[in-house]
Amino acid sequence: MGRRSVPFVVVLTALALASCARRGELPASANSSLAENDDTFCRAGGTVAPGSSQYVACIRDRDSQRANAIDRADKKQRELGEYMLNNPVRP
């Protein structure tokens, strides 16, 4: 590697890591639409009243499922990044 390519690799790695840092966060607009979807889903066609124990448990379960899905996606992204760093392809 030449002198000039070392800073490029460092910059490229820093950009890749910076983009991964905020991966698990959802935009504010997505949060409101997800809350509406959760509310509609947990009301179960009007048979469950908001604030009831069934409704609260449903909302909690949906939040837990969403958090687990985000964690799985983050883990896969980290594993891919580690794989790419440990197994560079040289043309």
Structure write-up:
The chain has 91 residues and is an all-alpha fold. It has one domain (5-86). The chain has helices spanning 5-21, 28-43, 53-86. The protein is elongated and about 60 Å long. 0% of the residues are buried.
For the record, give the distance between the C-alpha atoms at the N and C termini, rounded to a whole number: 13 Å
Counted by DSSP, the helix tally is 3
Rounded Rg: 21 Å
Mean pLDDT level: 78
Domain unit count? 1
What is the 3D shape? elongated
Strand element count: 0
Q: How helix-rich are the residues, as a percent range?
A: over 70%
What is the structural class? mainly alpha
List unreliable stretches of 5+ residues: none
Content of β-strand: under 5%
Major sheet details: none
The SSE order reads HHH
Which characteristics define this entry?
74% helix; mainly alpha; elongated; 91 residues
